[in-house]
Amino acid sequence: MTDSPLIAGVDEAGRGPLAGPVVAAAVILDPTRPIIGLADSKTLSAARREQLAVEIRGKALAWALSRAEAAEIDQINILQATLLAMQRAVAGLSIAPAIVLVDGNRCPALACPCQAIVKGDATEPAISAASILAKTARDAELCQLHNRYPNYGFARHKGYPTAAHREALRRYGPCPEHRRSFAPVAAALHSVVIEE
Q1: SS3 121
Q2: Which domain holds residue 186?
Q3: Does 171 fall in a domain?
């Protein structure tokens, strides 16, 4: 361990989807064990994200994943649920950071100093690492969700509002993991007509 202050990077995955949780990750990288190739998770292939996620979990000084469920998102809105998931991820770290860097323009309420950095997942290695852990964890979860609710195609679109997902919503109505406060889900809820 070094004498430099411990920096935790924080990011989330899953703000835009119509279903599933929003997942946040917090990562404190080890400056003595650099990880080559960290970048915004959205710019990496799924295979590269998976490789990096294994390396991050193995080399980081500390990391934690947390979430806010679809029901919580419906209750407090997606922004507040995202901040809550981030708060939970930082609280889950085995080491307390001296400062937290968060991707975006809003900071969760934390006990330590926090700085929001727009596009931080592309410029701050610790945020990039958090971005990769959050994305890989959420994608894996949506693949599991696909096994429970195969009609919706979650393994393909990960809950995002693609044309295929919207059509499945129209045909089958929402499943328990859909976010009822999101407009397309609310519309499907009221339009799944009594076709029986």
Answers
A1: helix
A2: 149-191
A3: yes
Mention every residue, 6+ apart, whose C-beta is less than 8 A from residue 111.
none
Taking the C-alpha atoms of residue 162 and residue 128, their distance in angstroms, rounded to an integer, is: 26
Q: Can you tell me the distance from the alpha carbon of 177 to that of 148, in angstroms, rounded to the nearest whole number? A: 10
SS3 123: helix
Rounded CA-CA distance 111/91 in Å is: 9
Kindly state whether residue 85 falls inside one of the protein's structural domains: yes
Give the count of beta carbons closer than 10 Å to the beta carbon of residue 59: 15
Q: What is the tens place of the pLDDT at every residue in 132-166?
A: 999 999 999 999 999 999 999 999 999 999 999 99
Question: 11-50, pLDDT tens digit by residue?
Answer: 999 999 999 999 999 999 999 999 999 988 889 999 999 9
Cβ of 60: how many Cβ atoms within 10 Å? 24
User: Cα(158)–Cα(59) distance, rounded to whole angstroms?
Assistant: 28
Domain total of the chain: 2
> Count of CB atoms within 10 A of residue 132's CB?
31
CA separation, residue 107 to residues 6, 61, 73, 182, 193 (Å): 18, 22, 17, 23, 42
Structure tokens belonging to residue 143: 């693949």
